[in-house]
Amino acid sequence: MDITFLSPLDKLVFHSLETMLSKIKIQQKSLTSNRRGFPERHRAITFGIATGRFNNITGLSHHSRKYPHIYEEILKIGKIICDGIGFEFKSIHLNNNVICPKHKDTKNVGKSVLVSFGDYSGANIVIEDDIYDAKYNPILFDGSKLEHWNTDDLIGNKYSLVFF
Q1: First-to-final CA distance of the chain
Q2: What is d(CA 73, CA 63) in angstroms, rounded to the nearest whole number?
Q3: Which of 30, 32, 33, 116 could form a disulfide with 160 if both were Cys (CB 3.0 to 4.6 A apart)?
Q4: What is the rounded CA–CA span in Å between residue 159 and residue 18?
Q5: Nearest-angstrom CA–CA distance, 51 and 28
């Protein structure tokens, strides 16, 4: 299995971002039409380069423009995590308290980096039946090839960043 465990991060790396996120309401997304098995509504937003769902235009995401201070903080964290391994990303998906069902990221091409943070326990990432703790522990893997999901035991408030 091609999984790389990156250097753990101090929780202080996420302090500013977590404070910023606590001041906004992350909208609920309905993904029933394109992601079978995901909760009917969950909280997630995309930063960086994205393709509009309705207009099919590729550019800086709506949330990157709406929350530039949050986008800049996410980019700082991405630089800390990804620069040392030469991993380039253009987009970042932010999940809030999402428990993912078993799935593969069929629209992603190549590897992604996942890291979680917040005041929570549980909801560990399972990759091909092996359980890992991504809390402050970035993991590099190809979600389009490896089936992954979360354990259904979340207590508290969890954020996850997926750099791709």
Answers
A1: 19
A2: 13
A3: 116
A4: 8
A5: 19
The CATH code of domain 3-158 reads 3.60.130.30
Q: What's the pTM?
A: 0.92
Partner residues linked to 69 by β-bridges: none
The pLDDT-based confidence of 109 (bands split at 50, 70, 90) is confident
Residue 129 makes CB contacts below 8 A (sequence gap 6+) with: none
The residue type at 137: N
Query: What is the number of residues in the chain?
Result: 164
Do residues 61 and 164 make contact, with C-beta atoms less than 8 angstroms apart? no
Q: Where are the domains of the chain?
A: 3-158
pLDDT of residue 63: 96
